[in-house]
Design goal:
The structure holds two protein chains of two kinds. Chain A contains twelve helices and seven strands. Chain A is mainly alpha-helical. In chain A, strand 5 and strand 6 form a beta hairpin. Chain B is an alpha/beta fold. The chains are: A mainly alpha, B alpha/beta.
């Protein structure tokens, strides 16, 4: 209480800040300057000391190495890469591999997590118990062990490449992963992509028009079916117009391995499956809590108004549940993306794995680590920004 | 498994935070009472704990040799098992005093990585191991093969160079931990395992379920001079490690070994007198006891003994001396003069 009294007594005279430590405004400014000064000083000390130590041990510094030839091979890449390329390009390969596993993982984990979460609320005893068993087992085992499990399943559980399983003609399953036939390159594929985009835009237009018409006249229009027809129908029409090419690039066993077709490596399979199933268990809980947070009375009221169960879920329950679901869901997305660095253990060339090789070959650990940290920060912040934007969009608009 | 990254991050922190003025390594080691030595976590013949948990191997013996030179006690060593990726951050940051972990001396490592390499303790070269049932006779037949390799090694780079030079393609499976690389190869994930020939021999002898099922191809595609290393900036410490290695080689050249060394106590040969410290000077120059070389050979042995005990024909690795014979016997082992 004494402090409070003194603060009141020392309040500045109206219209000015007194240069005295008993003035709370002045004191606050002084403290802030001191804190900022201390942070800058510590930062300066760390940086100058590091540079000094590195120089004394004559360890190379700087990011010049990014332009030098990497000279190591990378197992899988979404862009052209050979050991002739630079460290910078190798790092980009790693970033893209991380993004690939993160994006696909997030999509799959969301779908699986939602299904499991809803299943846990099912009135069917068996389904609900199966779902809760899944959640309890998966989320209580460390993800690294799960990755080793999935990796061992492929490398120890599947036959050698020459005895590959061949369930469907052209599809081969072995220790080297999954090989599937792909369609030969043809100009029609690009046109089908354009048709798909046109279809999506048209479907969006139709749904807007249908909503406006329903608001005006009360007449519902099956915009969902019409949209689906546009999105699927337009590309198919383009394909037929383009001569309906069907030539397949079939995988063939040549020398040590299959050539041709497309493949999913055991490393990618293991990291994707491990991360997806692990994160899906958490997402299931997030979804369940979100749905539970919506009062049952809401559903009853919707039913009383005569809404069928589909629109009840879509128009009444989900919009309210999403407000609870989205913030914790963001954390799960971030976790999945960051856990992808476990790829190092099973040999999937993600950004950490490649940056690690780089920092080892160049000896520039500090630069390597800052690049890893910077990249994760950028990806994480991007996910956060997007999810926050989405969260604001669906937030309750208070009037 | 993220330990490599952890070590790198730790190194970054240590390099960042360590005080600008570094004390002499020898003083630090003496004060601490033991040498902190970075070794391989599991490479039979070079750095490997035995069933009782004692570290054994050629690299391990050089850690012990340095400990004897300083403390006259081969047990005053603490071993830090390091992966290929952890090793440089560990030595750069001062986490270990000495890196004796089948590390190839190269120009980049000597300069921008900030290491000083002691004399070579094992002249090696990179080779390939394949399952016998593949029927491969030469590395030139490996076009299109899937190759298991440990990350952060010269091996990874030589592999890329070799396939490029021979216009062949390969599919690398790059894993951080040596154990996981071996596991992937033996499970059949890869057609080929590549590392130094000595390492392949060690893996085949110690890890393969049936050693006879695997063959090491005749091609040796690189020079891999394996040497202990210290960090830049402490010449005295570098000298101690360097001359401890030379002492084991010189002893073999003199014909001195751990069993007969006392017979040389009254030798009239002035070279041997200087070496054993009976005529003083060498120890003082290094900042060590005058009997340092005597103690080292007495307690750890000469180079030939160290070689035979760990990797020689009598061990599961069954490696011949080859390039590692003394220069007087057609090899490359050659110590600079003790004077």
């Amino acid at each position: 209480m004494a402090t409070e009294t003194r603060t009141t007594q020392g309040a500045p005279p109206p219209g000015g800040v007194s240069i005295s430590l008993s003035d709370p405004t002045f004191r606050a400014i002084v403290y802030q300057i001191l804190v900022v000064g201390a942070v800058v000083l510590v930062g300066w000390f760390l940086i100058s000391n590091t540079l000094d130590n590195l120089a004394r041990r004559s360890i190379a510094t700087g990011y010049d190495f990014l332009g030098r030839e990497a000279a190591f091979g990378i197992g899988e890449s979404m862009i052209d890469y050979s050991p002739k390329d630079s460290y910078g390009r190798a790092f980009l390969v790693g970033v893209l591999n991380t993004l690939k596993v993160s994006v696909i993982g997030i999509l799959l984990a969301t779908i699986i997590g939602t299904v499991i979460g809803v299943a846990r609320l099912s009135s069917n005893w068996l389904i609900a118990k199966l779902a809760s068993t899944y959640v309890e087992i998966i989320r209580n085992i460390p993800p690294l062990l799960q990755l080793f499990f999935w990796y061992a399943l492929v490398s120890d559980g599947l036959p050698a490449v020459r005895q590959a399983l061949n369930p469907i003609p052209g599809v081969f399953l072995s220790q080297r992963g999954l090989r599937v036939p792909v369609l030969e390159p043809h100009p029609v594929w690009a046109n089908m992509g354009i048709a798909l985009l046109v279809g999506i835009v048209a479907a969006w237009g139709v749904s807007r028009w249908a909503r406006a018409r329903q608001a005006r006249t009360g007449q519902p229009f099956p915009a969902g079916w019409a949209g689906l027809g546009l999105i699927i129908g337009l590309p198919i029409l383009t394909w037929i117009a383009g001569g309906a090419p069907m030539a397949l690039d079939m995988p063939k066993l040549a020398g040590f391995n299959f050539s041709g077709g497309a493949s999913i490596s055991p490393e990618f399979f293991a990291i994707l499956t491990g991360l997806t199933l692990y994160t899906a268990a958490f997402i299931a809980e997030v979804v369940r809590s979100g749905i539970k947070a919506v009062n049952w009375g809401q559903t009853e009221a919707a039913r009383a108004l005569g809404l069928p169960s589909g629109p009840t879920l879509r128009l009444v329950v989900l919009p309210q549940a999403l407000r609870v679901i989205v913030p914790p869901l963001t954390s799960q997305y971030l976790n999945l993306m960051k856990n992808s660095s476990l790829a190092l253990a099973i040999g999937y060339p993600d950004l950490v794995s490649i940056a690690n090789t780089t920092l080892n070959q160049t000896g520039q650990a500090i630069e390597g680590v800052t690049m890893i940290m910077g990249t994760y920060l950028v990806i994480s912040l991007s996910i956060s920004i997007f999810m926050n934007w989405y969260n604001k969009r669906i937030a309750l608009v208070e009037r | 498994m993220k330990s490599g990254l952890l070590a790198a991050a730790a190194a970054a922190v240590v390099i960042t935070a360590s005080a600008a003025a570094g004390a002499a390594t020898l003083d630090t080691v003496k004060q601490r009472g033991f040498v902190q030595c970075g070794v391989n976590a599991g490479l039979p013949g070079f750095g490997n704990p035995d069933s009782a948990g004692n570290w054994t191997g050629l690299d391990v013996d050089y850690c012990r040799a340095v400990a004897v030179a300083i403390f006259n006690d081969p047990n005053k060593v603490k071993f830090t098992p390091l992966s290929a990726q952890q090793r440089f951050p560990a030595i750069q940051s001062g986490e270990v005093d000495l890196l004796s972990r089948n590390t190839t001396a190269t120009l980049t490592r000597d300069t921008s990585v900030g290491l000083n390499f002691a004399p070579v303790t094992y002249y090696d070269g990179q080779g390939f191991m394949v399952p016998k049932k593949l029927g491969v006779k030469s590395a030139k037949e490996l076009n299109g093969a899937t190759v298991c390799v440990q990350s952060g090694t010269t091996t990874e780079l030589n592999l890329a160079d070799y396939f490029r030079a021979n216009n062949m393609t390969y599919n690398p499976v790059v894993i951080e931990s040596n154990d996981e690389v071996n596991a992937a190869y033996f499970a059949g994930r890869c057609d080929v395992l590549t590392t130094d020939v000595s390492g392949l021999a060690g893996t085949r002898a110690g890890v393969a379920p049936v050693p006879e099922d695997h063959v090491i191809l005749p091609e040796v595609i690189s020079k891999e001079p394996l040497a202990p290393a210290v960090r830049h900036g402490d010449d005295q410490w570098f000298d101690i490690v360097k001359w401890t290695v030379f002492a084991t080689i010189q002893a073999e050249e003199f014909g001195i070994n751990s069993k007969n060394i006392d017979e040389f106590a009254n030798s009239k040969n002035p070279d041997i007198q200087r070496f054993l410290g009976t005529s003083p000077g060498m120890g003082k120059a290094l900042g060590l006891d005058e009997k340092w070389a005597y103690n080292t050979v007495k307690k750890v042995g000469n180079y030939g003994e160290i070689f035979d005990r760990n990797v020689g024909p009598g061990t599961p690795l069954k490696l011949e001396r080859g390039l590692n014979a003394l220069w007087t016997k057609g090899g490359l082992m050659y110590a600079q003069p003790f004077r």
